[in-house]
Amino acid sequence: MSGILEFMTDYTLRTVALGSATLGLVAGALGAFAVLRRQSLLGDAVSHAALPGIVLAFMVTGSKTPLILVIGAALSGWVASLLVLLVVRTTRIKMDTALGLMLSTFFGLGMVLLSVIQRTAGEGMAGLDHFLFGQAATLVGEDLVTMAGLGLAVLIVLMLLWKEFKLLSFDPEFAGALGLPVKGLNVGLTTLLVIAIVIGLQTVGVVLMSAMIVTPAAAARQWTDRLGVLVALAGFFGALSGLIGALVSSLIPRLPTGPTIIMAITLITVLSLLFAPRRGVVAGWLRTLSQRKQVASDSILADLYRLADQHPEPAEAPHEVPVLVAMRSGEAVDKGLAELARQGLTALEPDGRWRLTPEGVDRGRHLVHGTLAEGGEPA
Amino acid sequence: MNASMWSILGIAVVTSAACALVGTFLMLRRLSMLSDAISHAILPGIVIAFFLTGDLTSPWLVVGAAATGVLTVALVEVITTTRLLKEDAAMGLVFPALFSLGIILITRYAGNVHLDVDAVLLGELAFAPFDRFMVAGHDLGPRALWLMSGILLISTTLITLFYKELKIATFDPGLAASLGLAPVVLHYGLMSLVSVTAVGAFDAVGLILVVALMIGPPAAAYLLTDRLAVLLGLAVGLGALAATLGFGLAFWIDASIAGCMAVAVGVVFFAVFLVAPDRGLVAVMRRRRRQRYQFAEVMLAIHLVHHEGSPEEIEESRVEHLHGKHVGWTPEFTRDVVAGALRRGLVEKAGDRLLLTELGRATAGHALSGAGA
Predict the structure, then answer these.
(1) Which of B33, B101, B107 is nearest residue A96 as measured by Cβ atoms?
(2) What is the ipTM of this complex?
(3) How do strand B138-142 and strand B347-350 relate by DSSP bridges?
(4) How distant is the Cα of A99 from the closest Cα of chain B, in angstroms?
(5) Is any Cβ of chain A less than 8 angstroms from the Cβ of B91?
(6) pLDDT for res B228
(7) Residue B133: phi, psi to the nearest 5?
(8) Are B316 and B364 in contact (CB under 8 A)?
(9) Alpha carbons B98 and B41: distance in angstroms, whole number
(10) Are the beta carbons of B215 and A108 separated by less than 8 Å?
(11) Is the model's pLDDT at B56 over the cut of 70?
(12) Rounded Cα distance, A173 and A152, in Å
């Protein structure tokens, strides 16, 4: 309770929490597209590549105004992604190699510039190295306004071009055939992604920002097959983990906000992977289990039907359990028969023998002959 | 250059060689980003092993922390085989989580010790010469140099021993499996080498330079050769070159050594990217330009053949007509194409008209029959 009370009253905490939630929301929503288009690692490269832009923007303008640093970050992230495309298009070097190369080179450049201004500018640069791992506690109202403004702009553009981006993500060739400017849309979507990344740099840092792109979408993907729901849910998970991370790290001393946010979203994702209703690992296990049970009881049903087929009595005549045990080579026949009885396909006679119900006869015929009834359509 | 500068350069060159060797195989297997993932993910392993051994360069720490790297690869594969996430997303989920765990451990429990967050990214190459390897009171030199030389020796030996197996498994995994080469064992063997190299290099050069050295030199070498043995040699050479250049740059502008080396890796790559004889940007552009003109010359010959002997031949074979409405070339392009065609003897000039030569007619015929086949 004290956490919530503090949240209502503490200015810093409120700013940090709102900022973290904003970055989670925007990064999650844009990340859904990145994950769908298998560009998860592009986010990693772009966020690392933002560092020299931040430092250069400071060196050129001498200002630490968030908007200026953000523009610098976006520019260098953008240049890096264009260089990746240039290398991939003109040589046989693959995407992942080009991404890794640009990531480390740009980040190295950022570190060089940082070490240079550390020497020359001294106190003036204090705060720039927070961009490495983020320093959510340094967020102030002005940052929040910048983040919210940029985030809102990104989300509005995303909504305006929704249909186009959707088509681009699922069937770029069809989009091209329809006459959509695929190249322009590609650049547009990448630009939005760059902005989304840049929004989070101050809070989470260049090193961990890529996780805020990939992870919420990875969690959301487990719950839905619809793009609209996916984007909304990824945004929600992102915002939720931002809030949780900010609150938890404010309650426990010496717990850095950025990594805590990443741990929160990772937890959400692991839970989603395990427990999501249809795709989840546990749901998969349960499905396999029930299928295995179904197969086992089906084969007993088929045996009962075959017995009836071979004997002159009517199909619903009762049979001894030991006969079935012999046919099934002694597997768990009792359990299977009980399961079949539960489904109303078999019935136990007072003398301990089992018989097929009329429904059981139908299903047995279907299993053995592949037809539901005499002359019926194969199912 | 004093002794400690020589040691720094030595450590950097040995590290770059060790990274380039394993990095080449990562690149060829399209696993370059695993170097990024592994080098981040080993952090919690290093921190925990450091708490246990109290020594950042202990061989036990290297082995223990490298296990985290292999664990990362296995985790990514487990998640990928559930088909719930694609491989890149699985990687993007696993390594930031482990890295965050490492950062949290450092911030909370190792605030005052040798490990700090900046050193994680950049290493402390400038201090590496002062950490000496002492055996029974004898100073044998910088510990990092011994550690990295040992790792380099191990990976050179293993790669030499299993060269053929690695080669087949890299270029044709299916064949490797059918020959009984156990690609899974090779894969995890390689991943263990990558992890050990990353952990060993981590303390000296930091994880960003590990990534740069594993990816950049092999990528540059890949633009220069098609032979695996040459590729490995070139990657090691280019890595050493980048380390040396970066070292010089760092002392010249007095900046972060690891950062300068990472930048030098990028500079070396882009230099090769521009001027590589066959696959460089300049060579590719020149080839594309030449092909454009060659194609246009053939088109010119086809155009002339098409109208040969027809009533409009006189009109269609005039040079001015070519950049008119039918062919649609710009006047400059037409001039260059006609000049090229004259030079190669495809056409002859007769006043302002172009007449096909035998060669021109044959070229057009060949192009047309080729297209028709």
Answers:
(1) B33
(2) 0.84
(3) unpaired
(4) 8
(5) yes
(6) 94
(7) -95, 110
(8) no
(9) 5
(10) no
(11) no
(12) 30
